[in-house]
Design a protein that fits this description.
Layout: E1 14-24, E2 27-37, E3 44-54, E4 65-70, E5 80-87
Parallel strand pairs: 3-5
Antiparallel strand pairs: 1-2, 1-4, 2-3, 4-5
């Protein structure tokens, strides 16, 4: 199948977050921050979620801003894949 005849991969979720751990081989822990409104007080709050993501080439490192794409389950915890590195960490 060539790229012209391959169907488009629709319905994949994407997230953007910061790599907080790169100690595992081909696995990154990514912290995704989102904002929500408190139901009672109507105040804006920040919520954090950590996702395990697959990084085939071990290219991302701690502090990098990366974009994640949902994928099939790769292990007990990994359900995401690092699509691209948006911004490298400043040392």
């Amino acid at each position: 199948m060539t790229n012209e005849t391959r169907p488009e991969r629709n319905g994949r979720k994407s997230l953007r977050g910061v790599v907080v751990s790169d100690k595992m081989d081909k696995t990154r822990v990514v912290n995704v921050e989102r904002t929500t409104r408190h139901p009672g007080y109507d105040k804006t709050m920040k919520k954090n979620s950590k996702f395990y993501a697959h990084d085939e080439g071990n290219e991302s490192h701690t502090g990098d801003l990366v974009e994640l794409v949902s994928t099939r389950p790769l292990s007990a915890l990994k359900r995401w894949r690092v699509a691209r590195i948006v911004e490298k960490a400043r040392i």
